[in-house]
Amino acid sequence: MSQNDKYYMMRSLEKALFVAETMATETSWELKTLSAACSIPKGTLQRILRTYEDLGYVRQVHRGGAYALTLKFYKLGKQIISQSNLVTLVEPVIQKLRDQVNETVNLSTLSGIDMVVIHQKASNHALRMDSIIGTSFPAYLSASGKVFLAFLSEEKLRCFIKELRRLDTNIDTEKINLIYKEIEFARERGIGLDFEELFQGIRCIAAPVFDDSGEIIATISCSVPTVRLDRALSQTLLTEIPRAAAEASQLFESPIHSFRFNLEEITDMLVAVEPR
C-alpha cells in the first residue's frame, strides 16, 4: 500500500514533520530557501513554522530573519534514547565494565559528522571525564568516532568525508589522509585510540558494537585522565573494552568479529609522555 492509499495519513502532519527533518540538516534557514528545499508554498510553510514557534520547537533568529530548531527536539530525543532498546540491552555490559576498571564508560553512536554520547557510567574517581547524555564531539578526532568510521560501508564513509569537508573548511587533503590512516588502524585492530586530540589530559580507548547484520551501531569507550593511565591500567582497558563490546554485540546476535593487536605496542603508545 502506497502512502497515497493510506486513509489515516494526515498530510498536514506529514508536511510539518518533513519540515522539521529538513531543518535539522542546517543551523538555520531562510524562509525562501526552506520553502524550496521542502517544496512547500511559503504561506503554508509560514503557518507550520509559526505553530512550531508557538509550541517552542522553532525560533526566529531575528525579527523577519532565518528560522532554527530549538533544543526541545533534543530533549525529546534524549527521552527516547533513555528508553531505547540499545541502551536498555547494553546498560548491564556498561555497568560491569565500569565496575571492573573504575573508569568512565561511554556508549556512543554516530550522528551526522559527530559522535553522540547516549549512555554513560562515571568512575568513582574525583578526577574523571564526565559527559552529559546527548553531548556530541567530532567523530574524526575521537576514539569512538575513529572506530565507528572504520566499520562504515565505503559509501557511507565517502558521504561522511564529503559532509565533513563541506562543513569544516579546515579539513584539507592532508587531514583527510590522516583520518583514513586512523580509520585503517582501527579497522585492522578493532579499537580506536584518542591521544588527547579531543580533550587535553584525556586519552580514550573505544571498541565497536555490531548488530545482527554485522553493521556497526555503537561504540563502547573509556575516557581516562592521562596522569592515571599507567601500563597496568592501559592493558586492563585494552583487554576489557573489546571484550565488553563483543559481549554487547552478542546481545544483538552479531556475527563474530575477530581482531588482533600487539598489546605491548599499543600500551607503549598509550603511556607515552607526549601525545602521539
TrEMBL record:
InterPro entries recorded: GAF-like_dom_sf, HTH_MetabolicPath_Reg, Tscrpt_reg_IclR_C, Tscrpt_reg_IclR_N, WH-like_DNA-bd_sf, WH_DNA-bd_sf
Domain HTH iclR-type: start-end pairs: 10-71
Keywords associated with the record: DNA-binding, Transcription, Transcription regulation
Organism: Paucidesulfovibrio gracilis DSM 16080
PROSITE patterns: HTH_ICLR, ICLR_ED
Domain of life per record: Bacteria
Signal peptide positions on this chain: none
Pfam family, one: HTH_IclR
Protein name: Transcriptional regulator, IclR family
Domain IclR-ED: 72-254
GO molecular function, one term: DNA binding
SUPFAM superfamilies linked to this entry: GAF domain-like (SSF55781), Winged helix' DNA-binding domain (SSF46785)
SMART domains given in the database record: HTH_ICLR
Transcription regulation keyword on record: yes
GO biological process per UniProt: negative regulation of DNA-templated transcription
Keyword Protein biosynthesis: no
